[in-house]
Amino acid sequence: MDALGLHQYYLAPEYEFTQNQLLGSADYVYDYRHRLSVNRFMTVKATDSDEKIRRYRIREDLQWVSTWRHLALNRRFYWGLGAAFDQEKDHEVDGGTTPLVRERVVGIVAGVDTRRQQWLSEGPSQGQWLRLFAETSSKLKADYDGNVVRADWRAHLPLHRTVLALRWNEAYGTTTAQPFELGGSKSDDYIPLPRLNERQFALRGYTSGEPTLIGHRARVLTAEWRAPLLDLDRHAMTPPVGINRLSLNLFYDLGAAWERGDSPNYHRGIGVELLAEPELIYIARWQFRAGVAKGLDQGGETKAYLQAGRSF
Questions:
Q1: 311: left (phi > 0), else alpha (psi -120 to 50), else beta?
Q2: Which of 12, 21, 153, 242 is the least crowded, having the fewest Cβ atoms under 10 Å away?
Q3: 312: closest CA among 233, 251, 229?
Q4: What does DSSP assign to residue 116?
Q5: C-alpha dihedral over 104, 110, 25, 247, to 10 degrees?
Q6: Is the peptide bond before 239 cis (omega within 30 degrees of 0)?
Q7: Cα(77)–Cα(65) distance, rounded to whole angstroms?
Q8: How far apart are CA 119 and CA 231, in angstroms?
Q9: Domains along the chain?
Q10: pLDDT tens digits along 52-75
Q11: What secondary structure letter does DSSP report for 189?
């Protein structure tokens, strides 16, 4: 970034050696108001008895969002618009490539943010954040031709040195829109700008793509109790790396995806996460979380994971 943080550049390249795939993410952000991002991800779908990859999917997306803000001491309003392109292909190691999804979306966004963060907190410790989305793929020559509206509300309640964090994510799509999928342990973006074309929502303890967790309506409720454990503040000069703080997170997830006219079939998940804050050259700080989640209903499993970033 530049000295004032007006222009920010993010580059996170990855390389998958067995299939020789160049992956990763790149972002450009201007004044925390405008964002251009490119992502390329790989998901393994099948392996053989020797754990060698037999089938995998490559997902690529390009997105632009611009927002305008009204700032006050304790609250921030924003509104904006953007567009997204998303495609996914299925690859057979000994076969060909099959296109799966080609999505184009334009949308408008709005929200209000009253969150505050205390000095020793591992994240937001008080306040609320409401985000609203309205998107359409109509007449954009994509695989889907529908409309989506979504509301994402988050609240942070201080409890002495700990925080009770709550989230309600509600999404509705027409029958011709791309359906929503629940599952996995996806993290929030590092950049606090709205992202369009979100169709996969985290539900820890379950695998994304389960038929009972797919639908054109979706709801995910989450409660997390976050507690700081230890302020390490240990660094090395050569190389200039270190770790700042360790925190504990106990969570409960409740989610459902269903079709219009049906009743929601809720799935529950519980678990624990340990959050760490590594630092690089004393200025670049990010968060890692290692967790174990258990799904309590049909399709649930006990899953261990390591993710970069916060849950929300």
A1: alpha
A2: 12
A3: 251
A4: B
A5: -140
A6: yes
A7: 16
A8: 11
A9: 43-308 (2.40.160.50)
A10: 999 999 999 999 999 999 988 788
A11: P
